[in-house]
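Hi there. Long-time user, first ticket. I'm pasting a complex I've been working with (about 651 residues overall). I'd like to know whether the download I got is complete or cut off, because the file seemed smaller than I expected. Thanks.
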Amino acid sequence: MSSRPKVVPLRPPPGPESDPRATAAQETARRDGLLVAIARALEAGRHGLTWENVAALWRAAYFSWHSEEVDEFGRDAKFTETIRPLFEFLYTVWWRVEPAGVENVPAEGAALVVANHSGVLPWDGVMITLAVRHEHPARRECRMLALDMFALLPFLAPALARTGAVRASQENGERLLRAGELVGVFPEGVKGVGKRYRDRYKLARFGRGGFVRLALRTSAPIVPCAVVGAEEIHPVLAKADWVGRPFGLPYFPITPSFPLLGPLGAVPLPAKWSIDFADPIPTATHGPEGAEDPILVNRLSEQVRSIIQRMIDGRLARRRSVWFG
Amino acid sequence: MGRIALTGTASFLGARLLRRLAETTGAARLLVVDVAPPPDALDVRHRAVDLTEPAADQRLLDVFREEQVEAVLHFAFYTGPRRDATHVHELESIGTLAVLAAAAAAGVGRVVMRSFTAVYGARGQNPAFLTEDRPLQPDPALGWARDKLEAEQHAASFSRRYPDLKIAVLRFAPLLGPRVHTFYTRILDRRVVPVLMGYDPLVQMLHPDDALAAAEAAVDRPAAGAFNIVPSRPIPLLTALHLAGKIPVPVPHPIAYPAAELMWSAGVGEAPGRFCDYVRFPCVADGERARRELGFAPRHASRDALLAYLEYRHPPARLARAEAPA
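Hi, the file is complete. Here it is re-exported in full:
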């Protein structure tokens, strides 16, 4: 009997305010994790649920998987750690991502990874981040610039920010690059991520060259990156944009499983992925004033686009199966 | 040496600035231009001027000339939303116009004006850090921000027309810390705090000590233009609420806006529905310019400001007493 671990009652001692107790509960949660926090909540129920211990438990549960401090763009190290197993499962088991040329990503200093966008949901960004962190000797953290439609979507937006994504804008990109960060960007934007299955691997227009101007202004080298496999995870057969528009979505995809299977439709198909990084294109030689030269900007933009298209075409030519590579 | 005139000395920041300046530059150099007299203990000269009266600019001009005012610190703004919209408009927009007109006519060289980072407007399209050159786009239907915006526009137009008048506009992030009582601290004092479902923007909370240091720096330096006065680091709203031990209750935003508006109209809400924007979208400003040109570097992050406020609301001294043996 005595070997049974002593249950710490959560009923508060009379008198004082909740703050130090909350800190104690939080300490406990940090040590014991979420399950114990829940167990304590049930235990507290036996002693009578008061506002104080509900708030303390709520808080303990929250901080068992969120950190108390985030970086200036809202990246939460603990939250990222918490959901990393899911991402790693997708990376290694579900999509069996095969990265190549990760060493082309500079080991330090600002650099801009430019990739094709596909797959309805921004999974390609997550996988690029993982590829760089896992395979690159410097274990760099790639900050992805997220489209407005993702960065403004309820639920998805805070989760993206906590995992280190930043809303795509010139100001945000410039701030990150000037701080010497590795930044990832999808110049195709909505046109890429929401394209139909029959248009797969045909790169859409690369915006208006904003990413080139960003790189020129900060003298950051551009690393072209080709993602193959993401087009097949949510094959968009048709688009019913009129359904999405009242909810602020620029498109509403119809895939074999969505909206037919409801939430199950959000489960991506297990295609085999590859992520290729090409040699970096230096931009420092043009100087920051090159950003004001539309001809140069467009030339660089087209150069990056054709490199990515070439890498994609090469992969597709070698690929024998969508599911097994 | 001329005097330094202060308006809005009954406001939280104005009162603290008055007290600080009385210590550093001496009460003899200060002049309170306000409806309410300053505390007797300070022994500061006081001239009663109501900024909302129609001839306020003439009154101010006389006062500035008679007292040989060389700098005006204009802090007569309301932090929280109020239901007497006409009065607020007269005080903040028209009152600022009067202060600036009198300052320009009296040859005052320096104006430091209080403003708010909320004047940028909370928008999804906002960059992670708003710089001072960003256009001010608050929700036009939000009267609270509109009056502040107009005051800023008056300041900008006077800066253009009177190059000798060095106007510094200090856009303070929301204050939070010991002795701060505003509409959002009243919300924060509740056990259960409504939040918008699926949204968790970064917010900034400025420690009053930092706000005061910035205002002092702006008095000392002749730098002109707008300056964001912000803490060193923002904090996600939900993290802040959980740190404070609150129970956040998510409300879908299509319901939250009208519900908040309805409660405000009924007299039980703390703020109009449009304020929901500020807990939905980011409105985070960049303090680099103040660091560069005013030499102001915040000593507290948003988290520190929050913890300082919580400590003030729930003093640990009470705990120590409760735990001591009887």
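A couple of notes from our side: The interface with chain B takes residues 13, 15-20, 22, 51, 54-56, 58-59, 62-63, 66, 68-70, 72-74, 76, 148, 151-155, 157-158, 161-162, 166-167, 169, 171-172, 175 of chain A (CB under 8 Å). Chain A has a mean pLDDT of 86.
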